[in-house]
Design brief:
An eight-stranded mixed β-sheet has the order 3-4-2-5-1-6-7-8, with helices on both faces. It has eleven helices and eight strands. By secondary structure, it is α/β, with parallel strands linked by helices. The radius of gyration is 17 Å and the shape is globular. The protein binds adenosine-5'-triphosphate and magnesium ion. The site of magnesium ion (MG) has 5 residues, from helix 1.
Amino acid sequence: MRSQNNIVAIASGKGGVGKTWLAIALARALAASGQRVLLFDGDLGLANIDVQLGLSPRHDIADILAGRVAAQDAVACHAQGFDILAGRSGNAALASLPETMLSALASIPALLADRYDTVLLDLAAGMDATMRRLASAAGAMLLVATGEPTSLTDAYAVLKRLARECPALEPAVVVNMAGSLAAGRATHATLARAAAQFLARRPPLAGIVRRDPAVPAAIRRQALVPANSLASEDATALANAWLAPSARRGKELHLAGG
Ligand SMILES: Nc1ncnc2c1ncn2[C@@H]1O[C@H](COP(=O)(O)OP(=O)(O)OP(=O)(O)O)[C@@H](O)[C@H]1O
Ligand SMILES: [Mg+2]
């Protein structure tokens, strides 16, 4: 399975930490900076990107897997300038795919990646088989956590399992719903300390997104969070610092240099 550097998985241990919202905010920020972006709903079977955005795309991943439509024809365009490949909410069959279908599913991001600067994979929480197969298609991962002890414990569990099963994928941490930037840095430091001590890993801090009442308010309206809200500005800063071409080049050079 070929993984590509422009495919970025968005994962978490605990659910409900803001992966889907963040994936949408990053897609919008990258599109605004001129990138061609695909937002891939890899949390199959649950109500996700299309629901948060109030869209009803004509096609979804189930149509691709059933051979009803080619991958590129299942993609829908969002008015904010990025593309979306929808999962299908309420489709329990998609949530537990057999092995052959998992392989087919995991090959879809790479089929589309050449058409985009960045493909963002919004994954299910935890590390079930579907999540692990989709994550193996990604060249990078953002691991989203909040300061809650359960979120941190579950994020650590994901780091531990990834260190064993996907050692090449070195996740960077996003602290979401932080009370302040200082609180976000402290949350990252706690997780990084445990990873350094027990896993010999030092997951870098990709960014901090502060808690912002504009996020749940917009999601309730199935609308985008205003771009000038606190959380959107933090997400844009994260996109520029971590996913802009110059930031990626820097990381590749860094990796190449050891
Ligand atoms: N920065 C933030 N400030 C305030 N609320 C937030 C923030 N980010 C996300 N939320 C809220 O957290 C809730 C969960 O968000 P979201 O659905 O994106 O999480 P998720 O990690 O994708 O969940 P799941 O694991 O179920 O897929 C939403 O109600 C959203 O409004
Ligand atoms: Mg989600």
